[in-house]
C-alpha cells in the first residue's frame, strides 16, 4: 500500500491543508477559505463516495444513477465557476459533448466493461477532464471578451457578424485551456507519473500494461478536452454563455 490509512496520514493531511491556506493568506491570494473548504469537502465526499461506489458497483441501475450524478455535479460546478447568472447551465453542453461520446465508444468497443469498478473511475477521469477544460476555456474566453470588447465592436463595425467578431478575440485565449493537458501528455514518463500508471503498478500490473493504460487515459483526455474547449468557445461566441 502506497499510503497506509493511519493517524499519521490524517495529521499530515491537516498540516498540509493548513499550510496551503496560510501561505495563500500570507500572499493575499484571496483563496484561503476556498482552500480549507475544498479540503474538508474532498475528505467528506471521498468518504461517502468510497462507501457508495462499493454498493453501486454491483447494480446497473444505481451505477447509471451515480454516473448521472457525477455529470450533474460537474456541470453545476463548471457553470457556477464560469458565470454567476442563469446561463451557467450551458456548461453541461461542452462537458457532455466531450466526455459522453468517448465513454460510449469505450463501452461499445468493450474496452471498458459496464461494471462499477471499471466504468466509474474511467468516467470520473473523463468527466473531470471535461470539467477542467470547460472552466478554464469559459473563464478565459469571457475574461478576454470583457477586456477587449471594444475590439469586438470594431470588428462588427467593419462588417463581421457578432459571432465572428467575438471568435477573433477570444479564440487564442480559450485555446490556452488545453495547455495543462498537453504539457502533462508531453512530459509523462519524464517528469510526471500520473495516477493511472502508479495505480496499475500498485495493483500488480507490469510496467508495460501500466504504460498502455496511462497512454489510453491521456489520449482520451486530450480528445475530451479539445471537444469541450471547442464547444465552450462556440457557446461564448454565440452569446449563449455570458456574464451580466
From TrEMBL:
Listed transmembrane segments: 6-26, 38-57, 63-79, 88-112, 118-138, 188-206, 212-237
Coiled coil location: none
Topological relation to the membrane, as annotated: Multi-pass membrane protein
A GO CC term assigned to this protein in UniProt: plasma membrane
Keywords: Membrane, Transmembrane, Transmembrane helix
Main location: membrane
Domain of life, per lineage: Bacteria
Subcellular location: Membrane
Family: Belongs to the UPF0014 family.
Protein name stated in the entry: ABC transporter permease
